[in-house]
Backbone:
């Protein structure tokens, strides 16, 4: 009996792995270089995000800055620098003992290049699933914000080609940090405010032969920062009748994949004091956080079929997020449901009206966002 039980266990585990794994481990045959016919930016990388800032950049001053821009070099008239993604500043989720998170994949490198006329690009190189984490990492709250509009958190409340780790890199280096080109006076004219930078023209390059499907789902309960801010985000992801309701909340959905090749899945759980949140794939907990702070977890070549997000708020707020980036012919969702603090499924008076997860298809080649 013990032998048969063990054999049955092995069969079950193999079935689980077949459901959860994406694609194959062999060569994906996807090219790793931008279109050589595009003279605007022939920089190597599986993913490229660029922004046209309209600024005049003092490349000589940046090159001479050995504190914040050491190791820069000129390539085709542009100034470039780069490193492993884990060595770049302000991308680490584990920035103190209370906020914990997985590192980014160690094989991913990020290169930045900027021209004297303000065209600024960041590229990601590495194995396919590792590089896809630069998109799914939006769950890490990575992306581009417009802080000139304080009642909106664009990283949480939008899905587009700006909202990813490459966007965070451009945002940090161009305008948002003390070492940024704008802060140090190296960028003259053009986008000098966060609003102008956010509303600039962006171009994204998918260097794979399949589309990338960027999926995003959240769950928000509570009012952390004020009525307008909370109301906007709660309208999108809150199953309660108002954003002040405390108690439990839950959201679930099924995901189907068509010829999935590679993927990266990110789970982010955040709470204020005394609250809790989690993200599960079936019965497997992807991320959970009890009490204050956050947990960020990353999974590669993983294609879960059922996702559940849950919160329990005593006061203030909780907000778990699930995001994924999948190389596939198609990704779709079904059986989308939510529960409020009274454990009512799909309540008619919810703020968000039971939204389906957002899915953005990024086709191979260049995509522009004006």
Residues:
């Amino acid at each position: 009996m013990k032998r048969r039980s063990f054999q049955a266990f092995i069969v079950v585990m193999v079935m689980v792995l077949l459901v959860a794994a994406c694609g194959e481990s062999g060569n994906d045959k996807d090219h790793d270089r931008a279109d050589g016919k595009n003279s605007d930016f022939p920089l190597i990388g599986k993913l490229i995000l660029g922004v046209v800032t309209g600024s005049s950049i003092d490349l000589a001053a940046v090159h001479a800055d050995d504190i914040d821009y050491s190791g820069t070099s000129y390539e085709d008239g542009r100034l470039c620098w780069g490193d492993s993604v884990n060595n770049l500043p302000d991308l680490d989720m584990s920035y103190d003992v209370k906020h914990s998170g997985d590192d980014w994949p160690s094989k991913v490198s990020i290169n930045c290049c900027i021209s004297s006329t303000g065209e600024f690009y960041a590229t990601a190189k590495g194995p396919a699933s590792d590089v896809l984490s630069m998109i799914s990492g939006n769950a890490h709250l990575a992306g581009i914000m417009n802080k000139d509009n304080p009642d909106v958190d664009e990283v949480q409340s939008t899905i587009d080609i700006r909202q990813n780790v490459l966007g965070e890199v451009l945002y940090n280096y161009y305008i948002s940090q003390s070492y940024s080109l704008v802060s140090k006076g190296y960028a003259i004219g053009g986008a000098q405010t966060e609003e102008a930078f956010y509303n600039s023209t962006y171009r994204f390059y998918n260097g794979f032969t399949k589309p990338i499907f960027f999926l995003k789902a959240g769950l928000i309960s509570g009012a952390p920062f004020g009525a307008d801010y909370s109301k906007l985000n709660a309208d999108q992801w809150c199953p309660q009748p108002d954003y002040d309701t405390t108690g439990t909340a839950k959201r679930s959905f099924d995901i189907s994949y068509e010829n999935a090749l590679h993927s990266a899945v990110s789970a982010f759980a955040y709470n204020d004091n005394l609250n809790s949140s989690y993200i599960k794939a079936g019965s497997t907990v992807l991320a959970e956080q009890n009490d204050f702070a956050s947990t960020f977890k990353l999974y590669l070549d993983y294609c879960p079929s059922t996702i559940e997000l849950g919160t329990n708020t005593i006061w203030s707020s909780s907000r778990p997020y699930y995001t994924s980036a999948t190389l596939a012919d198609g990704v779709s969702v079904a059986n989308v449901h939510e529960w409020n603090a009274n454990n009512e499924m799909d309540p008619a008076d919810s703020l968000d009206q039971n939204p389906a997860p957002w899915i953005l298809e990024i086709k191979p080649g260049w995509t522009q966002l004006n």
Summary: The radius of gyration is 21 Å. The CA atoms of residues 97 and 293 lie 9 Å apart. The first helix runs from residue 2 to 20.
